[in-house]
Design goal:
Length: about 80
């Protein structure tokens, strides 16, 4: 059986209110991935939203859980 997703603190949709990719706040899981010069964003793994975020930003996946892929997107 696979591990459940860790507790995540979703702040808001990243590019719009309805965006499946969410800005993520600090939790025990995310603390090591947060950067004061970048947004930590989680997208449902394999989603169209994830594909479009990667195409728009060129950001690589920095970590994954069962359900989400995480990206560190530097401030422009």
């Amino acid at each position: 059986m696979s591990e459940p997703d860790p507790e995540l603190n979703f702040v808001r949709g990243y590019r719009s209110v309805a965006d499946e990719c969410q800005l993520v706040g600090e939790t025990a899981f995310t603390v090591d991935f947060l950067d004061d010069a970048a947004d930590l964003v989680a997208c449902p793994t394999g989603s169209a939203a994830m594909a479009s975020l990667m195409a728009e930003t060129g950001a690589p996946v920095i970590t994954q859980t069962n359900s989400f892929s995480f990206f560190s997107i530097p401030y422009r």
